[in-house]
Each structure stands twice: as C-alpha cells, then as structure tokens.
Amino acid sequence: MTTPLFLLRCVEIGISIADLDLLTIGLVLDIWTEKANDDVKYKKKATQEDFDKF
Fold first, then answer.
1. Do residues 16 and 39 make contact, with C-beta atoms less than 8 angstroms apart?
2. Fewest Cβ atoms nearer than 10 Å: which of 28, 32, 50, 52?
C-alpha cells in the first residue's frame, strides 16, 4: 500500500491527520476493513450459546 492510498483510506473512514498520531497503521486498516463489512448480511448471528460452545 502506498502512502497516498493509505491517506485516502483514512479520509474514507473520517480519520484526520492529527488522529493518525494516536493510531497504528494496522488499526486504521482494521477499521477500514470493518467499514467494508458493514453491509454484509449474515445468514446467522452467533448467540451466547454459540460462543460458549466455542
């Protein structure tokens, strides 16, 4: 990933240049990935019982 592409991703998720002092590159990429998953519809949501089985 290039610096301009990284900064574009930051703008897409509303992170300012000042905010970047407080965040890691990995965290920014995780936030961007989760934003991309916001519209995904899952067939089933995990319940507490599912987590207990895990």
1. no
2. 52
* HEC profile of 4-53: HHHHHHHHHCCCCCCHHHCCCHHHHHHHHHHHHCCCCCCCCCCCHHHHHH
Determine the Cα angle at 33 with ends 5 and 18, to 5°: 55
Domain of residue 2: give its range: 1-50
The Cβ-side half-sphere exposure at 27, using a 13 Å CA radius, reads 7
Which helix or strand (DSSP H or E) is residue 3 part of? helix 3-12
Domain count, the chain: 1
- Its pTM stands at 0.65
